[in-house]
Amino acid sequence: MATPSPTSSVRDLSVAARTFVAGTVLAGSVVLVVNFPTQDVNVPLFLAFALASSLASTMKVRLPLGTGSSNLSVSYTVDFASLLVLGPGPTMVVAAVSAMTQSAFGTSRRNALHRILFSAAALVLTMHVAGWVFTVLGGRAGVFDSHLVRPFVAAVLVYYLVNTVAMATAIGLSTRQRVWRVWHNNFLWTAPSYFVGAGAAAAGVIAWTMNSGWLVPLASAPVYLTFRSYRIYLDRLASEQRHNEEIRRLHAQSVEALRAAKESEQRYAMAAAGSNDGLWDWDLDADLFYVSDRWKLMIGLSTADRIERSEQWFRDVHQEDLPGLRAELARHLDGDTPHFEHEYRMQHLDGSPRWVLCRGIAVRDETGKPTRIAGSQTDVTIRRRVQDELAHAALHDDLTGLANRMLFTAMLDRSLARAQRSQNYQFAVLFVDLDHFKLVNDSLGHVAGDKFLVAMARRFLKQMRPGDLLARLGGDEFAVLLDDMPDVATASTIAERLQLALLEAFEIDGRDFYASASMGIAVGNNGYLKSEDLLRDADAAMYHAKSLGRARCQTFDPSMHASAVQRLTIETRLRRAVERQELSLEYQPIVALGAQEVCGFEALVRWKHADGTMTPPSEFIPIAEETGLIGPMTRWVLKESCRQVAAWQRALGQPVPLTVNISAKLFDRSTLVDEVREAIEESGLLPGTLKLDITENFLANNADEVIQRLDGFRAIPVELCLDDFGTGFSSLSYLHHYRLDALKIDGAFIGQLGSDFSEAPIVTSIVNIARELGIGVIAEGVETLQQADRLIGLKCPLAQGSHFSKPLSADKAYEFLVKAPLPNLDTDERARSGWPRAVVA
Length: 841
Description:
The chain has 841 residues and is an alpha/beta fold. The protein contains 30 helices and 24 strands.
């Protein structure tokens, strides 16, 4: 009988192994209960066989082959005898008792419960199947005639196969080995022992029934001899394994000893070689030249090679460096230098150059004439290589290998100098900036972004003409120095080639990406004196290309420079205006269509200068967003507008809704929610009367972070309106995924509501969408009565625009509010009329 090796815990088994063990235990339990013998059982004989099988189970041989070892015992001999005498039912119980005895008490360490149960269940199933085959083929317990041979042999074969396959499967699944390999290595060759045991069992039973019990010990002799020969064979295998392991251990020790000896020999050779210097001595009068072995090895010569004349030395010097070497030697021999020192290249025997540092000092006679000179020579090839690499790194971008800003500026200065000398020389600078490159870094990480830049640099290099210089100035900015152009149109041609090169997708980490770039061209001429001026103009042209929609190229003209200067001026003045709180607010009424009653105000920031002129928001808001001034500006707008509207609410004794725009650039501002809450609490604004206008760009961030930010606003509470709906992506998924309170139809659609109603389907769709979602809708930019009437026909509840009132100062807004008061509606009426829920007190 074979049993698997123990496993410490059922949790250590794989899912497949646990399933197999559980299934076997369950099946064995069911078979044992259903087929448990209850009648015609010879109890004394049954107990004798159970005791004999249990005792025999302790006589076993451990099979050491394979990763999962197993045991082979002689208990199956008793089981076969019990099958012949008692029949399948009682023998199944005998086998179960034997298996549990062997698993529980026949091992050096305690087996886990699941292993004991599995061994018993597996043997119950084995004996049940073998007994069934025995019975089907005509075998009967206690009947011993010629018809017994076929069913008994078949039962033994089935017993062997079922028992060993079950054990091999358990071992294979628990140790993650192939079941066939486990069975082949551990159980195939045990087949003879089963048949020998079966034969001995049959012989012993027949001898007992013939009253020849003295022959029973003889019948057990083959079993003993079989197990004894197995044990001797297995001991021999174990001895061979130990011998092989010892041979491998000794071999490893020998290899390690040889390696240590070799390293020791190398260390000795290196120490014996001394320093890294080769020695030389030149007798100037006789022109005899001596060098040490180390000197020869530096240039690939063997120690047996003879060098006796100075021309042999000069012959191996690199031809470009030979004049300098001779000149430095002559200076020292003439007494101009106290010692000789010079770096030059020597030609190695393999054809490669070797940089060497040669030092020496001359010996002179009493007249001062040099008679000989001697010194040393050091191989400095590695140091020179490092120096060259450092020099290259100082002038090249370490990511792409392109020229960096320093090298590009130096080459540009050279082109400017040439333009001053030659009227016919033409060149240009092409400034390239990738569009939306930040999205790559933010979505995939900087490693993928770096790969993207490298791939783009390689693609750009393929479009360069001979003599052009491509440089990476930093980040996602590139520049091209177009040298010696035949005409100005060449710059545009090169720019178009670069744009075409970007049309093909870039594959980064298994993903395809498409890129675009904005480009600016500045044509060089003798009017430029400094390289930074030319780069500045190319940069200005590039920004002009971005302002026109990106993915295009623009050539610089002086108006672009004036625009850039104006932009810088606006930025400087805006920063000062924000710091000094020189901005002001105007309030545009939001009215209920049809009733012509005020439903709230939208706060709009204005920038009026001391001279009475005004800078429109379309100019200074984008600058504020780019420079970060949008943060303090928005904080001031929140506090001032909340303070003003709170005063109106207290004066009128009723809620006045207030709307404030929030830039998408403020999404990452961690204090935004707290700043809104602080503005409401400090001003005393009634809860629920502040609404924030956000754009789709605000929602185009990480979904979890957007939800967290919106939930923070709602907890204040603050309502949220999606501004300029219809002009961006207009993604309906935003409306489904995020909780919004109102949609604001962009004025571009309202302004085209003419007599032909060309835009009516779009406006109607937006109004219907809002109504179906149960949220408010506000039309912006209503300028004419015709537009207002059309919106009333479309059942748009709220609107704002110059038709009702232009943006007003705080005083005039209050007067407007008093003349056209807020409607006094209850909650249900407000909801039916399309009022925003913030109006409800």
